[in-house]
Amino acid sequence: MHSFSIAEQAPLFRFVLGLADDAVVLSHRLSEWCSNAPYLEEDIALSNVALDYIGRARMYYQYAAELEGKGRTEDDIAYLRNEREFTNLLIHELPKGDFAFTMVRQFLLDAFYILYLEKLLDSSDETVAAIAAKSIKETRYHLKRSEPWIRQLSEGTVESRDRLIRALDELKDFVGELFEMSEWEVELVADGIAVDRASLQADWDDYVQKFLAISDIEFGKSKLQIRGGRNGIHTEHLGHMLCEMQYLQRSYPAMQW
Amino acid sequence: MTTVNKKTEVIPTSHPVFAQRRSFRAASKYQELWQVLDQVCDPELPGLTLWDLGVLQDVQMQGEQINVVITLTYSGCPAVDAMTEDIISALTAAGYSEVKVDIALAPAWTTEMISPAGKAHLKTLNIAPPAHNDEVDCPVCGSHDTEVLSQFGSTACKAMYRCGNCLEIFDYFKNL
């Protein structure tokens, strides 16, 4: 068994890997709705959003594998790493929860990725910029769906509003990490490759607060911010998720469809 | 009296993005290869060629080897493996044995890469082609009176609509 120590990897690899892990973990959480959503159209929609994120993850993993140049494939990286080797931000790995939780998380992330990918389009790394160009169009579409859902949940029934508020309350401790810079991202920002996440926070706060204010919902800032994903420190949930996501490759190594 | 809003295009126009693809193809040295690839259709849109869909971007020959470049509609499109296999088998059947298919990330696919013939073909499949500002006309009766039922349809590239005039439920090929 090879051991790949993430800390020894080049900044660009770590950067791309982080984006890949964000995408694959979220796609798995979304895919958990397949055959479980409230009704058929939502089932199809969530599965399609999951598919967009799988596509995004594949593009990043393929690039990461190429950058690493050690013969690992996209599948090796996705399916044969342990929890501590995953570097996704924690918000992506939280369990899907109820439908309100999934849609609130999606709304917060869609709003974030619109801002983030817009900047990533200008990356001096051509592949990263090309992936951003494909992804941003999909994210714009996702936001077109998550916005009305936030309105519907907050202005729907007492129950749906309660659930939305509960979801926001749970998620507010995890959004800060979206705007934190790893050391390697700081390095890459100087080269024009990565995006300065911290610079997006004011716009994101503004957009989210204004949108929620339409339905008279407050989204306060939480002083407690849970972090650690980029360094492989996760919530208890990721390990369980990987058990399921990686089951086939772990049980039947190198199996193909 | 029922009024049916049949929109007819007086002068058929091509979008500049498609016009660019068309002239790129016209300038290619490998016309016979493009023609072979005109047999390859999208696996989920019967009769719509990869060229008309805008997926097929380039084909070249280097020595014995044929290099085909395609671009994906949506990044997670699961049809990519089937498309790659279909390209390889069409070229193999035409006598070219060494075929390599590359998937290009850039330029990112847009619905404007779809040819006018491709858009017309979508209508024959009862799929509304991508429309400006998502003002969707019913592919069956042509009515403007349509509403979205679901922002996602049977595949990643489509949304589900209903016509208020003929009540038909149809797929709309989303603008991207």
Kindly state the number of beta strands of chain A. 0
How many distinct folded domains of chain B? 2
Q: How many DSSP H or I helices of chain A?
A: 10
Order of helices and strands of chain B: HHHEEHEHEEEE
Oligomer: heterodimer
CATH class of the largest domain in chain B: Alpha Beta
Number of strands of chain B: 7
Describe the largest sheet of chain A.
none
Rg of chain A, Cα atoms, Å? 18 Å
Mean pLDDT of chain A: 95
Q: Helicity of chain B, in percent?
A: 25-40%
CATH evolutionary superfamily of chain A? Ferritin, core subunit, four-helix bundle
Structure report:
The complex is a heterodimer of chains A (about 260) and B (about 180). Chain A has a single domain (about 10-250), classed as Ferritin, core subunit, four-helix bundle (Ferritin, Up-down Bundle), CATH 1.20.1260.10. Chain A has about 260 residues and is mainly α. Chain A has helices spanning about 10-30, 40-70, 75-80, 100-120, 125-155, 160-170, 185-190, 200-215, 235-245, 245-250. Chain B has about 180 residues and is of the alpha/beta class. Chain B has 2 domains: about 15-110, GMP Synthetase, Chain A, domain 3 (2-Layer Sandwich); about 125-175, no CATH class. Chain B has helices at about 15-25, 30-35, 50-55, 80-95, 115-125, and strands spanning about 55-60, 65-70, 100-105, 125-130, 145-150, 160-165, 170-175. Chain B has a 4-stranded mixed β-sheet. In chain B, strands 1-2-3 form a 3-stranded mixed β-sheet. In chain B, a hairpin with a 2-residue loop joins β1 and β2 (about 65-70). Classes of the chains: A mainly alpha (about 260), B alpha/beta (about 180). At the A-B interface, α2 and α5 of A face loops of B.
List keywords for this structure.
heterodimer, A: 257 residues, mainly alpha, Ferritin, 62% helix, globular, B: 176 residues, alpha/beta, GMP Synthetase, Chain A, domain 3, 2 domains, four-stranded mixed beta sheet, three-stranded mixed beta sheet, 7 strands, 26% helix, elongated
